[in-house]
């Protein structure tokens, strides 16, 4: 049967079907970690996602004999295009069966929409912001994914190359063994940094206070410290308010380490979370009827041996000056306390030597690689 491409409406019911296809495609795959359906629906919804203040998007699904066989989101990020002087569209939320007719039909539909809007090239997988999923997996297909990353089958990169896509950037990920003791070098550097720059470690045990004091400053720090990274576009005030409401309220405060200077200005942040990968697998992307229990158990009852390092951000003027040692000198004792054996770095640009240098005193294994692909349309 021929492949039929349909534009997916942006109402909640249609978006749930769009998201659910990506989950159903990986049924039985032990490495795939599903998103929470409600979260992805909110991201794709113009009513929920403030990125639609400056983005527009169209969603396509491929059908054969009435059955869904693929999906793709086509996104135009106007601020990014203006800042970089490009006419570029993004693609994301892409999944398809191992059939070249299906993948080509999906990308042709996305590219056709982009061309109708004046775009000249396409790149992805990317989302509406850097808080969304980025990068197609090209190495590490037999490794458990994380809540913050894309998993895809090994045939995906082959399809991309056959359609003429080329590498634009790679991210690498590391698995690290949690050390039995804080590395001596970290301890020495941390003490020097505290004394030389007047820095201090701040912990919170009151969530409202944490939100009030570092909610917006944390995302402003992300804007400042990530601004030179690949395809990064600064978050707007509305986006910051949105992410503060979503993320800060979900953090484990004991695994949140904040570095401030003598004037209480935010200098650095380290955010870690017990791995929710197995819990999300058990939930199948749904909070009800028992998904919430699996997630809460993983979050607060320390039933996993892995901790995800979701975020490390340091003000540019303090980068490469040892602030990272100060962050990990605080976090490692908590990792030991909760009996975490491994830490996941999550994606880092392969050319970002500053970030990768922070792992030099740990036993690491580079176990995943993901790629942004691009081509002219």
TrEMBL record:
Residues passing through the membrane, by range: none
InterPro entries documented for this protein: Acyl_CoA_acyltransferase, BcerS-like
Signal peptide bounds: none
Gene3D superfamilies: 3.40.630.30
Tree of life domain: Bacteria
Annotated protein name in UniProt: N-acetyltransferase
